[in-house]
Design brief:
The complex is a heterodimer of chains A (310) and B (298).
Chain A: H1 2-8, H2 13-32, H3 48-55, H4 73-88, H5 106-110, H6 117-124, H7 130-144, H8 152-158, H9 165-172, E1 186-192, E2 195-203, E3 208-210, E4 213-214, H10 215-218, H11 222-234, E5 241-248, H12 252-270, H13 275-281
Parallel strand pairs in A: 3-5
Antiparallel strand pairs in A: 1-2, 2-5, 3-4
Chain B: H1 4-9, H2 19-29, H3 49-53, H4 68-71, H5 86-91, E1 96-99, E2 111-115, E3 118-121, H6 123-142, E4 147-150, H7 157-166, E5 170-172, H8 184-187, E6 210-213, H9 220-228, E7 233-237, E8 248-251, H10 257-297
Helix pairs in contact in B: 6-10, 7-10
Classes of the chains: A alpha+beta (310), B alpha/beta (298).
GO molecular function (chain B): structural constituent of ribosome
Family (chain B): Belongs to the universal ribosomal protein uS2 family.
InterPro entries (chain B): Ribosomal_uS2, Ribosomal_uS2_bac/mit/plastid, Ribosomal_uS2_flav_dom_sf
Amino acid sequence: MSSFLLRRGLFTSSVIANTASKNLTARSAVIQTVRFASTRQQPQQQPFQQQQQDNIYEVREKPQSLSYFTGNYKYNDLLIELDALHKTFADWQGETTLGEQDIGTPDQQQSNAWKLRDKMEQMLEIPLKTSQWRKIVLHLNTLASLPKPLPAPVEEVLRPYRRYDQQQQTGSTGSSSKTLDALGRAYAVGRRKESSARCWVVEGDGQVLINGVSINDYFQRPVDRDEVNLPLEAIESKDKYNVWALVNGGGSTGQAQAIKLGVGRALLTHNPELKPILRKAGCITRDPRVVERKKEGQRKARAKYTWYVT
Amino acid sequence: MASRAMLKKLVPCTGRVSHNVQKSTLRAFSTVKPSQQQQEPIKNEQVNPAEALKDLVPPSNVELKKPIWRSVAEAAEPITPYNMSIGRLLAAGLHLGHSTSLWEPATLPFIFGTREGISIINLEHTLVYLRRACNVAREVAYRGGNILFVGTRPGFQDLTVDAARRCEGYHVSAKWIPGTLTNAQQVLGRHATPDPNDPGRAAETFKPDLIVLLNPLENNIALSEAQLNMIPVIAITDTDYDPRRVTYPIPANDDSIRGVELVAKVISTAAKDGMLRRKQLLDKKDKESRFIRGERQL
């Protein structure tokens, strides 16, 4: 081909040499860029059949996890593990006898406090999106809703996922620093608006003294008297405790509600199991409402100046 | 039916059948009664149909046929490519194609006919293509390849994981993340544990050598990624999917969970077979090399 073209004088020899060499390099480039499915570098000079026969004994490195190609394989493996555990114990019947059945306190019944997303991420060392965390919690809930008592392997698997694990253990031994003093008095502080009340609650016969004055003399309005008596009436022990309160600041309503809060907290020191009852009565939550500040350009906190059309 | 005793009589050393034997065998096989046997004439009285059909009703102590949903999991016969028959494929519902109005004309060679508005897949072809797919899986496993089972429909999760576990393969039973093969460094590499000696280095990523797609209709991205990376694909192609798009199609019903479970089990059993043979091969080679070394030492 090249000799013919030379004779015709259409191309110089250098051009022909260039094109020939370009073809050669193109061909070798094609051989070098053939890629196989595995990431291993293949030797380039052997023909294909020879490669097949040589490689059959080669032990290649393989991914360890079954779920490697799902992306976040640790998360996927975890879901499969929890699923498999649930399947193993799908027919579990609880082993409690009728007499000893402990339904548990209302807190424990339906709510399982699982670790939140960031703590769970930390514990599992797996990056978790919120949707992924929710899926894990779904699986944990299905496991935890098996008939009680839970089988031992299930309990063991669920334990590291529970929130407040250490606090529950120490809380039961009573490490909350509130205790009765030497004379059997419980002390607590309650606040509402600008009032603050210091309350001492001790076992007695039902007297209530506020700033040294009996309740009926201090509070003229029955509403305020009812507020002060509310915590003791909620637990139906009006005649079992004496209350001594020192209150200052604010007005009558604020002071009454501050005493209510203080007495409620003091009663918890006496008996922590009263918490759900007092909470339902409304003696545990500190009412955060205070007077809102006045803003400039407005008449009061919210009231605006009249808008004129001019 | 001829008994074995009768058959033995048919192979005398002379090579000829005796006349008496001939007559008796004829009597057994022939539906037409010979004239020597006098048959009683049928009476004119009314024949009770219940009485007549009593022999066809199975006795009550016989177990009823298992429902389809247990037919694969609790199969009495093992599910291997060597035990597959058209009857078993039929029982799993693999012959039921999609509605004729939704058909893909390229599937015409695999369609047996239509009934009740759906196309019926010819199970003879299904069996042949299934066996071919099993051979591919077996050979890939024999050569140490990675087999990836992809089944992303909600009911396929368990069967995909089981199939993968059986043959030490891999699975994708939730979503196929786009870029698993073409963007492996970001999708797969980010979850790899860094090398303790060289933490800055990019993690090594792996690719499968064979993909078994149980629902190719929903996994176009997986299919195109496999094609870009020159990975062969085995897929269950129903009558609404073009079988020419995959390397090794299996024309079968992709909607029935039991049907797909059967197919996945068969392929994974074949792959397990190949994997075990490879282990034997490597063991043998290892023993040979140790033997040779032992000789040299002596």
